[in-house]
Structure to design on (308 residues):
């Protein structure tokens, strides 16, 4: 885990303190992301005994600055029992209410997701009606824990949104590594380096799946082995252009990687992505149908691929 610990770029289960705090630290400047309201408030504790909670604490695993209103968005939470992230004893589902001011945006029972990943989480898809602070509320009997996050105005982030056309940025391939070394940090390079993203978009003949991840640095963390999961999910899908892009140009020799300031590959820089992994699923014309951020499992990958 030594390599993983060096990289604040990754949302890590080993030191998971909330994606909001991590991503704020990784941002390029204070004006690029909304004022942070990513604070988890625990409203129910069992006396003063450390680590003894009547209801688990929600840990956000999503980049709030990447969300804008009026387009589909997604939030994801892991649970913490006061001592560690809940894994084997995480509940099969949680009840979550999402509020925007006095308005209830969503009220759902969210199933536990952990297909192919070591850390269970719970995800909610919704379309925010306006910019401002949203509150996720999880209840258990009379006890409540909540988490607030901010949604911005359209245009407030360069991160591509559902409904946008996937920006055409060159990606490294087996034929042209573009100086990216290694081309794929997976122990055995994945098969998703045969087509450049620009060529896939120019062809316009197949839906496009773009995965941005560093599998060699994130083998067991909360983000999970997403490249392996994508390989499994796409095993029978020869009707897709699937592109994998690494995050850093030279992760093993670039001293900036230790502080998250190394040289990013062109697509990461152009998409303004100070987090990983991220998965984009787009129509053949490049229109983004779904974006999965920070933590996702085999079930969400399968659901996203089923859209095309």
């Amino acid at each position: 885990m030594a390599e993983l610990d060096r990289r604040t770029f990754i949302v890590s289960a080993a030191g998971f303190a909330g994606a909001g705090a991590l991503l704020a630290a990784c941002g390029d400047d204070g004006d690029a992301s909304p004022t942070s309201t990513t604070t988890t408030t625990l409203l129910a504790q069992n006396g003063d005994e450390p680590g003894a909670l009547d209801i688990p604490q929600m840990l956000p695993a999503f980049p709030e600055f990447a969300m804008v209103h009026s387009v589909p968005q997604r939030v994801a939470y892991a649970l913490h029992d006061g001592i560690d992230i809940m894994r084997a004893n995480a509940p099969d589902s949680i009840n979550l209410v999402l509020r925007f001011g006095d308005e209830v945006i969503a009220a759902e029972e969210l199933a536990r997701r952990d297909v192919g990943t070591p850390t269970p989480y719970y995800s909610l898809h919704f379309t925010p009606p306006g910019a401002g602070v949203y509150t996720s509320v999880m209840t258990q009997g009379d006890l409540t824990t909540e988490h607030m996050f901010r949604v911005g105005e359209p245009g407030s982030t360069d991160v591509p949104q559902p409904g946008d056309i996937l920006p055409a940025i060159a990606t490294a391939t087996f034929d042209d590594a573009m100086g990216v070394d290694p081309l794929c940090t997976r122990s055995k390079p994945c098969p998703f380096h045969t087509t450049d993203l620009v060529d896939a978009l120019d062809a316009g003949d197949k839906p496009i799946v773009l995965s941005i991840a560093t599998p060699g640095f994130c083998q067991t963390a909360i983000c999970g082995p997403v490249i392996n999961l994508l390989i499994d999910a796409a095993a029978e899908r020869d009707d897709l252009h699937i592109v994998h892009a690494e995050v850093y140009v030279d992760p093993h020799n670039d001293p900036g990687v230790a502080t998250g300031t190394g040289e990013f590959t062109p697509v990461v820089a152009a998409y303004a992505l100070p987090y990983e992994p991220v998965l984009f699923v787009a129509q053949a014309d490049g229109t983004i149908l779904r974006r999965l951020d920070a933590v996702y499992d085999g079930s969400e990958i399968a659901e996203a691929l089923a859209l095309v």
User: Anything to note?
Assistant: The CA atoms of residues 248 and 264 lie 4 Å apart. The mean pLDDT is 83. The helical segments are 2-6, 19-26, 197-203, 226-233, 266-270, 298-305.
